[in-house]
User: Which sequence fits this backbone?
């Protein structure tokens, strides 16, 4: 049977590849056109033979290119699509009437009686006075075959379109319901009665009644009766609201709006709320159509099948009985669900997980890949473990396909969306930085850490305005974050590259955080979200994102102070809308300290050098097995299970494409900057986290010499703490370097 098929295929290939192929094709098409000259065919089918001829021609062309280029152009999808396109064309011809006095007459339509039947509804057969509804009807009939083609080739896109359409309909319906509920008949009457007036009501003191503080400004005279009516309306609205300080009524542009501010005017700190006054500016709509899109290659079925056989056979050769039930393919890694078999099926004893894990090196040798990784427990899957194996050919994840996966511009799901990449299931992963609330990123040189930081910043630039988020960018390497120097989102005048200035900026951010706490306290809310809701768009407190690209360099020069400031921001910043993204390429314990780890619950690790580094960042192994080039492990705050993600590829051209759209607006709109107090003597300041440093400094001023034992006796502390204090005094130039068996000389005083 197979031999007969091969003979047929070889004969077809011989004809198709012949130099006279197109001549044969022309003859076949002419033969297909012969039925058009028969009267019965024309009356019943019209130009159907012409359409058939075109279909044969198109199919033959696809067949030639498929055989010549060894590509599967002639698939069931393509053949079915040709048929549907021909069918759609046939329906179109059926909608046009054609009558001729010659012998060559269709008398009905260009596609005959049957084509007319498909194109027209029975209620207007032979009636050519078509209305707009008839045209709409024809449009849908014609588009239906084309829609079926779209479903065949782009099912995910069709699902996304239908989902967004239904979501939009639901949102519109909910909006209409809210508008209907908020309609107030009394307000509408008042708006109509005073359409040309502007009423400003200002309450200057909470001790005075509201009626005594009403000032009415209008271009026309308002009589006393009207004033009394207004007071009655206000008394109803502001019942039990005597603590509210500033109330504005305006009916400009037929809009009746009430703005509430609950800050006391006599309070000095309360005036700081004015910088959060909301002004609707004309920010641009960011265009992402010019971003890079790379070509993707599907994972070969043969590769998957061969890998499964190698895994099962290798483990079986060492006495480990297993089966593979499923697999999920990501851009660069495929995870196989490995189910341990039975040791004794009668006693229901399965193969232990440790038996499989001990064969890691054997599997790596058999597969020819040292970077295999085991997942002992799969989330939501019983009696199965995962084994992750790199693909022979990895696909890149473009920034464009992740950022455009969901409509993030007006999404309430993500307050601060950050594109991570693509997961093992092939679905783009996007996180909300406001829920993390802080992110610790680690990875060795070349692992993709800096690209990841750029993708977070660019993701926010693509979806959020400066009214929503402001950024503090600290870049000790001086080259990674400098492309963002001219964006209006910066909360500082420039990207921070000096360590001394970094300390000042972080200190100013801490002060900003404390000011925000005082404002929240005065308003009577717990966090920034409640503040923005209560202000009813009159004031809007923007979020602050602090990005540090290389923590190790800062810790090397001003470790204690940097750690103190970062920890303080991490502990208290969430309520005030301050979030941190801290990255380092050296995840050692002296850089990623215990305090920093404790306050950064969400972590991302790229490829690291050893298991020790992996444990430092993730509190577990696995990061040392990553393959690099954006391959990461993500440990979120709300899930104990780490997920493997392929990070996005963001080129310099992509960054330039986004930032160039924002640069003209930095000079156009002068936004408020962070108030930074420069400390000229930053290197000579007392950088310490020990509360006894001041007392140790007092002891040094009382004598010409100072020893560690003296600090122990006077301060009643142990030797380690006394030694640390002595080291700090030496670093700050207070005492001389130590000499064996001798007290240190006091250099100051």
Assistant:
């Amino acid at each position: 049977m197979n031999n007969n098929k091969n003979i047929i295929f070889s004969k077809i290939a011989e004809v198709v590849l012949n130099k006279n192929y197109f001549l044969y094709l022309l003859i076949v098409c002419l033969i297909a056109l012969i039925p058009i000259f028969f009267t019965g065919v024309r009356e019943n089918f019209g130009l159907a033979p012409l359409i058939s001829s075109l279909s044969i021609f198109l199919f033959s062309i696809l067949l030639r290119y498929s055989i010549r280029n060894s590509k599967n152009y002639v698939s069931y999808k393509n053949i079915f699509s040709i048929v549907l396109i021909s069918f759609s064309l046939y329906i179109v011809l059926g909608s046009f009437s054609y009558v001729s006095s010659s012998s060559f007459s269709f008398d009905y339509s260009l596609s005959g009686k049957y084509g007319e039947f498909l194109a027209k509804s029975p209620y207007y057969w032979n009636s050519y006075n078509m209305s707009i509804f008839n045209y709409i009807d024809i449009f849908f009939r014609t588009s239906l075959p084309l829609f079926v083609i779209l479903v065949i080739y782009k099912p995910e896109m069709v699902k996304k379109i239908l989902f967004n359409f239904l979501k939009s309909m639901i949102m519109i319906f909910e909006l209409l319901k809210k508008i209907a509920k908020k309609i107030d008949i009394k307000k509408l009457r008042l708006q109509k009665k005073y359409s040309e007036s502007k009423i400003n009501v200002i309450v200057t003191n909470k001790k005075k009644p509201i009626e005594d503080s009403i000032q009415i400004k209008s271009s026309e005279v308002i009589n006393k009766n009207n004033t009394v009516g207004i007071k009655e309306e206000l008394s109803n609205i502001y019942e039990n609201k005597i603590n509210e300080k500033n109330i504005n009524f305006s009916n400009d542009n037929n809009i009746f709006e009430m703005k509430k501010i609950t800050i006391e005017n006599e309070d000095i700190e309360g005036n700081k709320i004015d910088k959060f006054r909301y002004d609707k500016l004309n920010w641009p709509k960011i265009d992402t159509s010019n971003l890079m899109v790379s070509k993707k290659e599907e994972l070969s079925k043969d590769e998957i099948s061969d890998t499964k056989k190698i895994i099962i056979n290798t483990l079986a050769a060492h006495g480990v009985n297993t089966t593979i039930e499923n697999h999920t393919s990501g851009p660069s890694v495929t995870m196989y669900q490995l189910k341990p078999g039975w040791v004794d099926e009668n006693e229901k004893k399965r193969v232990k997980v440790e038996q499989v894990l001990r064969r890691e090196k054997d599997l790596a040798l058999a597969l020819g890949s040292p970077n295999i990784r085991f997942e002992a427990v799969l989330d939501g899957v019983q009696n199965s473990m995962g084994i992750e194996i790199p693909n022979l050919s990895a696909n890149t994840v473009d920034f464009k396909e992740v950022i455009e996966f969901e409509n993030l511009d007006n999404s309430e799901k993500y307050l601060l969306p950050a594109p991570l990449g693509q997961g093992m299931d092939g679905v783009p992963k996007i996180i909300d930085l406001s829920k993390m609330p802080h992110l610790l990123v680690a990875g060795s040189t070349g692992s993709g850490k800096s690209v990841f930081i750029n993708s977070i910043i660019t993701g926010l630039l693509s979806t959020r305005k400066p009214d929503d988020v402001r950024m503090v960018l600290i870049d000790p390497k001086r080259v990674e974050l400098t492309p963002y120097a001219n964006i209006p989102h910066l909360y500082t005048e420039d990207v921070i590259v000096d360590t001394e200035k970094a300390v000042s900026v972080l200190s100013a951010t801490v002060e900003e955080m404390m000011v925000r706490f005082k404002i929240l306290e005065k308003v009577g809310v717990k966090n920034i979200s409640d503040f923005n809701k209560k202000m009813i768009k009159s004031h809007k407190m923007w979020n602050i994102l602090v990005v540090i690209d290389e923590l190790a360099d800062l810790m090397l020069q001003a470790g204690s102070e940097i750690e103190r400031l970062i920890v303080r921001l991490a502990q208290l910043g969430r309520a005030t809308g301050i979030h941190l993204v801290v990255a380092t390429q050296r995840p050692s314990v002296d850089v990623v300290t215990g305090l920093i780890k404790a306050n950064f619950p969400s972590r991302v690790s790229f490829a690291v050098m050893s298991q020790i580094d992996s444990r430092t960042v993730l509190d577990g192994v696995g990061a040392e097995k990553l393959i690099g080039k954006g391959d990461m492990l993500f440990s979120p705050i709300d899930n104990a299970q780490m997920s493997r993600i392929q990070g996005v590829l963001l080129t310099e051209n992509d960054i330039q494409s986004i930032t160039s759209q924002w640069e003209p607006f930095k000079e156009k709109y002068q936004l408020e900057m962070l108030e930074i107090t420069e400390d000229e003597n930053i290197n000579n300041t007392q950088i310490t986290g020990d509360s006894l440093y001041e007392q140790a400094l007092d002891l040094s001023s009382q004598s010409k010499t100072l020893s560690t034992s003296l600090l122990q006796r006077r301060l009643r502390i142990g030797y380690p703490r006394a030694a640390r204090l002595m080291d700090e005094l030496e670093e700050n130039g207070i005492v001389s370097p130590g000499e064996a068996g001798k007290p240190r000389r006091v250099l100051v005083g």
